Amino acid sequence: MELRTLRYFVAVAEELHFGRAAARLHMSQPPLSRAIKRLEADVGAVLLHRSPAGVALTPAGTALLEGARTLLDQADQVRVRVAAAAGPAALTVGILGDGSDGGAIRLAAAYRRRHPGVEVRVRETDLTDPTCGLRAGLVDIALTRAPFDESGLTVHDLRADPVGAVLRADDPLARRGRLERADLADRRWFRFPDGTDPVWQAYWNGGEPREGPVVRAVQECLQAVLWNGTVGMAPLGHRPPEGLAVVPLTDMAPSRVVVAWNEGEADTNPLIRSFVRIATASYRR
User: Fold this and answer.
1) Distance of CA 188 to the CA centre of its chain
2) Which of 200, 206, 231, 255 has its CA 20 to 30 A from that of 55?
3) How does DSSP assign 186-230, residue by residue?
């Protein structure tokens, strides 16, 4: 059994859907299906029950999943130890937004337990660069939010958070239980500086060109709402400061928490692969 094939199997077993697994692996579905069939032939057992609704693990598949995860972890540990023997191991992580998020806290603890000898360097970035410096080569991997221009990057979803409009607490709309973007059509919104990723800018402006103050950081956005009565945006579940309120927006797509890295980097850097696996587990809790 090749490690690459085991990675394919783990993706299918975790997603329980060939299409989603293929998207996660950034490959087309037919070669993935063929690889799993070859693996079943190699082990002499049916690993997955296939149906139009998706797939389910057989008892043999469940047993292989546990062993495959162990083997892949061990293989990455070997690579990490070899790299450490060649010199100090380090991983630079770009973080956008709330580093106190429960998923991020669990990820940090689990990664430290798994790689106690690795120095993790954190680069916190502002709202003008959702890739946290990936394109400039400043970080190895980014823990950030989508959507943004994904060209040249590999992006893996961790969680989807509903979003709401941030308003002054004394704003008449703040008393509503929910809003739609049309309710805010005549309001001033925050904007990002010129040159900011247009996909990112469009999402946080509700898909429309807006007028309003230019901000670069979360606190600047909140202060613009507090002082100027502009419209802000934030994932639900983040408690706003005193004087502000967050009202759910029912016609806005969720804000996706993702990990992203430059295409091909995970193939050569086991610390990135391990980060993605640990992040996936940490955000599923």
Assistant:
1) 29
2) 255
3) TS-B-BPPTTS-HHHHHHHTTTS---S-B--SHHHHHHHHHHH--
Query: How far is the CA of 199 from the CAs of 145, 147, 158, 204, 208, in angstroms?
Result: 12, 6, 19, 9, 11
Question: 213 or 266: whose pLDDT is higher?
Answer: 213
Q: How many CB atoms lie within 10 A of CB 52?
A: 4
Tell me how far apart the alpha carbons of residues 158 and 101 are, in angstroms, rounded to a whole number. Answer: 13
With cut-offs at 50, 70 and 90, classify the pLDDT of residue 1. confident
Percent of the chain with pLDDT strictly greater than 70: 96
pLDDT value at residue 267: 78
Round to whole Å and give the CA distance between 61 and 84.
Answer: 34
The answer for 169, left when phi > 0, alpha when psi is -120 to 50, beta otherwise, is alpha
269 sits in which H/E element: none
Confidence check: pLDDT of 74 > 90: no
